[in-house]
Amino acid sequence: MKKEFVVIGLGRFGGSIVRELVEQGMEVMAIDKFEDKIDEFANIATHAVMADSTDESVLRSLGIRNFDHVIVAIGDDIQASILTTLMLKEIGVKKITVKAQNDYHEKVLRRIGADKVVHPERDMGKRIAHNIVSNNVLDYLELSDEHSIVEIVANDLLIGNTIIGLDIRAQYGINIVAIKRKDDIIVSPQATDEIQADDILIVIGADTDINRFEKKVMQSS
Ligand code: ATP
């Protein structure tokens, strides 16, 4: 069965979520308080509705409770974002994801019961910073405050060595969980697997340990 979503706030972030969900065949109700946004999304979303999401009676009349997942993508107006989230909780929406503007906003959203809080500018900033500092780091995904997964391009220090030979787990306390090799992905590589040129290592571990490893890989690049 198709899942049904509501996206509130059709800025760049909310708008791109609407487009992607529709692309994936989902039903999407797109809401914004400005008419030009509704005109823009009228032919993209399943329904595009002009409404102020801080008005509880409007939310109820739209039958928001029956949707599987509501995404609150209001950015600058933190008060409207918090109020909307609070009312969605009160109405009994099953799953709420909210975009946070800063750490305080995130804290409040978590406290009032948002199921998921996303912080796209901050997260993308971190990912790009890792890539800028080290060309070998292709991508970076934060798992928790202290743990991440990174994609690192193998360099001369690594190429031609086996995983056991490099002793990465003992030396750095991190694990290679997969290797991307051309179009293949080797999940749970063997200790005896040899790292080849152009391999991309997917590494998991504590940030401090990953940073030590990144620096080591960088030094020999
Ligand atoms: P982005 O960076 O994603 O472009 P942003 O973080 O700058 O967006 P805003 O432009 O502040 O976010 O808000 C996104 C959208 O949310 C805007 O189109 C705005 O009209 C809409 N919006 C703001 N408040 C409400 C509200 N109370 N009800 C409905 N829509 C709202």
UniProtKB/TrEMBL annotation:
InterPro entries named in the record: NAD(P)-bd_dom_sf, RCK_C, RCK_C_sf, RCK_N, Trk_Ktr_HKT_K-transport
Residues spanning the signal sequence: none
Annotated ranges, domain RCK C-terminal: 135-219
Gene Ontology terms describing biological process: potassium ion transport
Top-level taxon: Bacteria
Domain RCK N-terminal: 2-118
Protein name listed in UniProt: Potassium transporter Trk
